[in-house]
Design goal:
2 domains; Rossmann fold; 6-stranded parallel β-sheet; alpha/beta
């Protein structure tokens, strides 16, 4: 089968298209024929090993000391079950699925094997495979942190990075939960973010949201580009700060600030769960939220796709077509 191989850290050019052996599912695994995957900011950082200094050692130990431990990158998949192991109960051949796995990777390929107990669910029936691939990373991350922050109706929520993979879902989900939303993005994305449900949009190229004196019940930085001290000043006395890309140094600051104030400070990584994918599936099918796709590339143009994502200005998701399907 065709797959993208990454054998060293570096620029997008380290990604190479090669022929590799097709995987065989274990007893508890599902073999998925991949139609689409995505390029996320996380995969861009892992490929280039562009991480904050305080995260350097733990990241090297996790991802790989001298090169990536997993030669085939990719965490998101939308495709069709081709075969299942003898112990698999939930899925059968022909099932249309989407999944998000942060341990095995290997979705930049024509096939991958995923444990049945990983975050894998039936694809929403109302979307294409391309659209389905644009759901898991941003949707799961946004849902995870908003639930951690105990979001509820009537709260005033600020979402920073509102036009990115996580941001577009954070805006839509916050609206679904009944919040009043102030979104922060660049000039070119104001119209998009308003269309997703934001009540107010702040263009960060023209205005610093922390200088307005407004305070929020929840402040969600989806891209890790805000000033933590300034964000604390923009929170209400018992407000909640959410940070989806918190490095160890910031996590320590958050821990200390949480001990010395009545504010709740939550950072870290969203662990993909099947139940979250199912929630997103139901919301998509009910028309409550929708996937946002910026650009589409074939697998053969993975280098160009990574170059684009490296610029840091994508809107929603960048989708990779691995194999054609009549539903795409």
């Amino acid at each position: 089968m065709k797959a993208i191989i990454c054998t060293k850290y570096g620029p997008p050019e380290v990604l190479q298209l090669q022929d590799v052996e097709k995987p065989v599912p274990g007893d508890n695994e599902v073999l998925v024929k991949i139609y689409t995957t995505t390029v996320t900011a996380g995969e861009s950082r892992m490929r280039s090993f562009t991480v904050p200094p305080s995260y350097w050692l733990p990241a090297r130990l996790t991802i790989g000391l001298r090169k990536p431990k997993k030669a085939i990158p990719g965490m998101v998949v939308a495709g069709e079950v081709e075969a299942v192991g003898k112990e698999v109960k939930r899925f059968k051949g022909g099932d249309q699925v989407f999944a998000y796995d942060i341990t095995k990777f290997s979705t930049y390929a024509e096939y991958t094997c995923l444990p049945e107990n990983s975050a894998i669910a039936f694809k929403p029936s109302t979307v294409t495979y391309e659209e389905a691939a644009a759901i898991p990373f941003g949707g799961v991350t946004a849902l995870h942190f908003l639930k951690q922050g105990k979001i509820h109706s009537g709260q005033h929520v600020l979402i920073y990075g509102a036009s990115g993979s996580v941001g577009v879902y954070a805006v839509q989900l916050a609206k679904h939960f009944g919040a009043l939303i102030t979104a922060v993005c660049s000039t070119t994305n104001v119209t998009l973010v308003k269309s997703l449900g934001a009540d107010q949009v702040i263009d960060y190229t023209k205005e610093d949201f922390t200088s307005s004196g407004e305070t929020y019940d929840i402040l969600f930085d989806t891209v890790g580009k805000t000033s933590f001290p300034d964000c604390l000043k923009s929170l209400k006395k018992e407000g909640v700060y959410l940070q989806s890309v918190a490095a160890p140094a910031l996590s320590i600051q958050m821990l200390w600030a949480g001990m010395t104030s009545s504010k709740t400070l939550i950072g870290g990584t969203a662990t993909p769960k099947t139940e979250d994918l199912i929630t997103l599936k139901e919301l998509i099918e009910a028309g409550k939220i929708k996937p946002i796709i910026d650009r589409r590339y074939p697998l053969e143009q993975i280098v160009e796709a990574h170059r684009y994502v490296d610029q840091g200005h994508k809107k929603g998701d960048v989708v990779i077509t691995v194999q054609q399907n009549k539903h795409i």
